[in-house]
Amino acid sequence: MSDILVHTEAGVTTLTFNRPDKKNSITAAMYASLADALDAAAADDGVRCVVFQGNETTFSAGNDIADFLNNPPATTDSPVFRFLRGIAQFPKPLLAAVCGPAVGVGTTLLFHCDLVYAGDNAAFSMPFVNLGLCPEAASSLLVPQMFGYHRAAEALLLGEPFMAEAALEVGLVNRVVPPSEAAALAQQVARKLAAKPLSSLVATKRLMKQGQMKQVMTVMAEEGEQFGRMLREPAAREAFGAFMERRKPDFSKV
Length: 254
Known about the structure:
The chain has helices at 28-43, 65-70, 79-89, 105-108, 139-147, 149-158, 164-170, 179-194, 198-231, 234-245; strands spanning 4-9, 12-17, 49-53, 94-98, 101-103, 115-119, 123-125, 162-163, 175-177. It has 254 residues and is of the alpha/beta class. The strands form two sheets. It has a six-stranded mixed β-sheet, sandwiched between helices. Strands 5-7-8 form a three-stranded mixed β-sheet.
């Protein structure tokens, strides 16, 4: 069974994180599958929109740390960067059904979605600083825009989880429902979108996003360069070492 399930029906492509034993943490191979699926959906006129989902207890725990250390993104063509560019530039509506933990990229990918539906058990977090790293996916730009600076600073500097109702309040999600209803709601809305003219969907999304698309791509590239440098520095090595050794990191000397 694939770690990323791709299913297309009635104009809707659904991408499912399918690695429950690892809390749907994402490997380089999974990023490649996601990037390929987005490319295919963008090129297929029969696809009107794409839905991301996990399961009722977990959306995604973010990067698989062990895989990330073994396969760090070395170039801008690395799978993770292909995926991030793919979601930022995807021309059709992107939706997400989020239940349980959405960690790191599990949260930042949502800033590129057009509609997000959350289970009331959803817990969002962007703990990059806690790993000796910096934000990615243009979140250093998009989080302050959506949350306001002080709430963004709380989310990005402290890296602590915030729940579905808080995400609804700041506009990250459109609606909060019981976990058993989130995926069905996302599919219901996706089917509504799929019944609309593709040209109108694409034009409307492009017009809404065109004012900042260049800035998003510039910031994403800058973050990627900084992220790559920080990944090799002492703070990140200590954070990842502590994670693998199941101990509290000590940043007093870094």
